[in-house]
Amino acid sequence: MFDMGSQNTKDALWRENPIHQVVLDEYYIGVCPVTQALWRAIKGLDDPSFSKNGNRPVVKVSWIDIVGNKDEQAIGLLDELNQLTKHNRPEGYIYRLPTEAEWECAARAGEDYTYAGSDNLKEVGWFHQNSHSETKEVGRKKRNGFGLFDMSGNVWEWCSDWVNEGYYEQCFKDGITKNPKGAAEGRFRVVRGGSWSDDPRHCRVSYRGGDDPTTRDHDLGFRLVLGKK
Fold first, then answer.
1. Which of 163, 156, 157 is closest to 197 using CA atoms?
2. CA distances from 185 to 133, 188, 190, 211 (A)
3. pTM exceeding the 0.85 threshold for the entire prediction
4. What are phi and psi of 42, to 5 degrees?
5. Rounded to whole angstroms, how far apart are CA atoms 72 and 12?
6. CA–CA separation, 99 and 187 (whole Å)
7. What are the backbone dihedrals phi and psi of residue 28, each rounded to the nearest 5 degrees, phi first?
8. How far is CA 38 from the centre of its chain?
9. Distance between CA 32 and CA 147 in Å, rounded?
10. Longest CA pairwise span in the chain (Å)
11. What Å distances lie between residue 63 and 19, 68, 81, 215, 225, CA to CA?
């Protein structure tokens, strides 16, 4: 169980509160964001990133590119990955995007830091003051308490949830929430972590961003989870 959200009235946006308790089932999360090399290995195609380097995060991939769209018969990267690994995964587990709660729990790593692994963003993340206006190779900054890199800064990371500004209020009213999957509907999908082009406020572990599922941007990537369906 962990406390999700923030009451920091100086930096936090109102949709980061109230703090509420969340319980999660076991899951596994990628040590780093998905790299350009991994994208190419799964898709068998060149990646769409603007600055080519296999060890940098893949960017300019939309939520739809990753998850797919059954209504339009669009196959996403996760469809291909799960097909490739169908005999090499624990029973009942699939590769997917993290829920917003899974992402924040992993970023916090049981620690009381502003960013993922430190109160000093320069120790753990690439942001507008130190990135030279570009993505960086993954794993070059200090890892957090769970051994994860780049959860604050470098690239925004897609989550599975819809954005709903009143969702935390409902979670707080309901009490302890088990395996929350976000609102039932919305216009935008959650993005987390901030990026190389952002200021420190947007790189905090509690900051909640969102984007249209079709958006492909130069500072937007993702991280894989292996979890229950």
1. 156
2. 34, 9, 12, 14
3. yes
4. -80, -45
5. 38
6. 16
7. -120, 140
8. 17
9. 10
10. 49
11. 27, 8, 15, 7, 15
CATH number of 2-228, picked from 2.40.50.100, 3.90.1580.10, 3.40.30.10, 3.40.50.2300: 3.90.1580.10
- Which residues does residue 115 pair with via DSSP β-bridges, in sequence order? 118
CB 50: neighbour CB atoms within 10 A? 9
The first and second tokens of residue 61, run together, are: 């991939």
3-class DSSP state for residue 38?
Answer: helix
Which two structure tokens, joined as six digits, stand for 8?
Answer: 């920091």
Lowest mean per-residue pLDDT among 70-74, 139-143, 161-165, 187-191: 70-74
SS3 category, 78: helix
Residue 165: the pLDDT is 80
Here the tokens at position 151 are: 């959860």
CA 29/CA 26 separation, integer angstroms: 10
Domain boundaries, the chain: 2-228
